[in-house]
């Protein structure tokens, strides 16, 4: 049996009733073709079973319509939400993401970036691992890699960034606890002090200092559910434990709340607990978690906007975006439910 000949641009053009040049423009994402014609061409592509040779297009310098998305952990629901937001924004723009996790390893991050560059991705959205050095970021820029840092920004590095307004948000969250009468506050999840965590701790310290209160007790526990439980165990062993536990993210708070309950403490009654992120579980747990809504999907969308801008204009001035956060008050601090943007 003779194999069928592969379909070509000419087959698509004939089916759509347009020229080969028009088909080529549509497949390359050109804005020069009318929307109705683009639709007709794409329907023809599907009808005749044509597969666009993206590799050949890349050799011609037209891009691959792919983006590398690197996060430190995918099992944290915050990063799952951020990935969803970025993926949706990329889809609207006609791109697809290649996802990789680094697990806080600079070596693993470097390998992932190398593989993504071998696949000629058009740019990278990166939550840098803790060991990332500014020279490494600069090296990517020198090699023409379009890059947006997300959630963390490597000190003394260059380029675009998208993340939440960490410091202002944590000041407001601390002020909420102070209004409730808390004077001794602990902060959990500080084992790895990246730029975002430094901003969060700075916000807590600024609010306490403004009221003449002691600096927070910073617990160098992992930013995980198990790390939250470890922080709770440490607090319970203290002769004079703090009355409020501020956690670096919601996942840490969930672990802390469970461990505190197991030791007979009432969340929101005997001790206040707060998180950061407002992932879906924050509203569903009992009591509900007081937290900062940092809009991870919005951050993902903003990172995509910055990257597409960088792809279109590689020489544009760097842009840093800090998205506003929202205080969400629930039962874990003993108050009624309410929220407000900061």
Automatic annotation (TrEMBL):
HTH lacI-type domain ranges (all copies): 7-61
Matches recorded under SMART domains: HTH_LACI (SM00354)
Taxonomic superkingdom: Bacteria
UniProt KW Transcription keyword: yes
Keywords for the protein's UniProt record, in alphabetical order: DNA-binding, Repressor, Transcription, Transcription regulation
Membrane-crossing segments per the record: none
PROSITE patterns for this protein: HTH_LACI_1, HTH_LACI_2
Coiled coil (UniProt feature): none
MF GO annotations: DNA-binding transcription factor activity; transcription cis-regulatory region binding
Name the UniProt record assigns to this protein: LacI family transcriptional regulator
């Amino acid at each position: 049996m003779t194999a069928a000949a592969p379909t070509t641009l000419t087959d698509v053009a004939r089916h759509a009733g347009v020229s080969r040049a028009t088909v080529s423009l549509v497949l390359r994402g050109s804005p020069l073709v009318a929307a109705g014609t683009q639709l007709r061409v794409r329907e023809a592509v599907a009808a005749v079973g044509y597969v666009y040779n993206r590799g050949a297009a890349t050799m011609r310098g037209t891009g691959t319509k792919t983006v590398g998305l690197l996060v430190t952990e995918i099992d944290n629901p915050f990063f799952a939400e951020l990935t969803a937001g970025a993926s949706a924004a990329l889809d609207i723009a006609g791109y697809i993401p290649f996802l990789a996790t680094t697990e806080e390893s600079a070596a693993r991050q470097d390998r992932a970036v190398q593989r993504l560059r071998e696949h000629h991705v058009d740019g990278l959205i990166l939550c840098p691992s803790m060991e990332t050095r500014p020279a490494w970021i600069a090296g990517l820029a020198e090699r023409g890699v379009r890059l947006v840092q997300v959630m963390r920004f490597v000190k003394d590095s260059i380029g675009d960034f998208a993340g939440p307004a960490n410091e202002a948000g944590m000041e407001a969250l601390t002020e909420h606890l102070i209004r409730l009468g808390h004077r001794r506050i602990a902060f959990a999840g500080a084992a790895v002090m990246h730029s975002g965590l430094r901003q969060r701790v700075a916000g807590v310290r600024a609010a306490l200092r403004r009221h003449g209160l002691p600096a927070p007790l910073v617990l160098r526990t992992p930013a995980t559910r198990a790390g939250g439980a470890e922080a709770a165990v440490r607090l319970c062993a203290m002769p004079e434990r703090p009355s409020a536990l501020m956690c670096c993210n919601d996942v840490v708070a969930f672990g802390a709340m469970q461990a505190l309950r197991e030791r007979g403490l009432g969340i929101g009654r005997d001790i206040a607990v707060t998180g950061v992120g407002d992932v879906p579980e924050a509203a569903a747990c009992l009591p509900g978690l007081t937290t900062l809504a940092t809009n991870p999907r919005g951050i993902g969308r903003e990172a995509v906007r910055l990257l597409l801008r960088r792809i279109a204009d590689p020489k544009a001035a760097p842009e840093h975006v800090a998205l506003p956060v929202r205080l969400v008050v629930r039962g874990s601090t003993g108050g009624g439910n309410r929220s407000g943007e900061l």
